[in-house]
Amino acid sequence: MSAKNSNSNSAKNSTNDTTSMISEASTLNNRKSPRITTPIDYKALHECAIPRNTDMIQKMEAESYLKDIIVSIENGIGLTKSKMLHMLRSDNYFLPLFIQNKEGLGMIVPDSTLSVQEISDKIGPNNLVSVIDGESNEDAGQWSLQKWAKYYHSQDKKHIYNVISLEISRTDLGNSIKRPTIVEKSDLITNCWPKRKQKVVYYHVLSGEKVFYLIPPTSKNLRAYEQWCSSEEQFLLVFNQFVNGQVGRVVLKSGNTLIIPGGWIHAVSTLKDTIVIGGNFLMLETMGIHINVYKMESRMNVSETYRLPYFLSICEWITLNIEKNLKSIKNSKKKRK
What we know:
By secondary structure, the chain is an alpha+beta fold.
């Protein structure tokens, strides 16, 4: 969960095998990056000893954005996996899909009136969540859900904190959530990984508002992203300056769903106190990009905490599953003869 106007950049190859929720409180700051870069003196930054790019969002909003790199549909009625892949297929990657409302998606989520206090009551007020300081981007330690709920609902937030993720699997709340059918049928983890369930493979806003800035996962853009992440001035530069305007923008409000294929670089601005259910997923059709991102994360020494768990093992199971299916097809043909 997190609170308002947090800004972050990431190239996603990850998926969680649990259902998680995000609640964010807005503030014009960068979420701390899990990538290894030149150390930044956050204390000096906070005290203005280091120039701070406080108008990052304004600069991004002043840009013109491409409209044809995001596919938008009203709802999921009649949407199948094959139709989705046909709509989203581009030259060398798949496009993000924005869905106005969840009708026809087969998705079940809590009502938009769900509060953080209710989440605390359902999950357990003594459960701990990791909190990030929105001003310094540093770890603010672990809070009880009850403490977080009290802070989140307070009218006078003198300091901004974020909770990036709350695992709710194996809880009544988690069991009441169902992801979109098209994601269920596309997800390699569900189809190839034994005895595991993937529940968080979409990004759905229950309440609040977020702005996504999306950059295609071309080889050139991924190289630029890797260079940007390695720069000691990472937090002082707006990444879209390095991709020649190849940026899409989409606003997510309550009831909207966004599906982001693997590898897409994206920044997120949280404009209002927001509660989200979300994650990313693996598709066979985009495995090439997933592998490229995995290699990039290895070069960047990204912590395993922030990477797709068991990615290489998943690849092995995918290979075994394909081999098994091919043998089955081959045996079927022999029987027909």
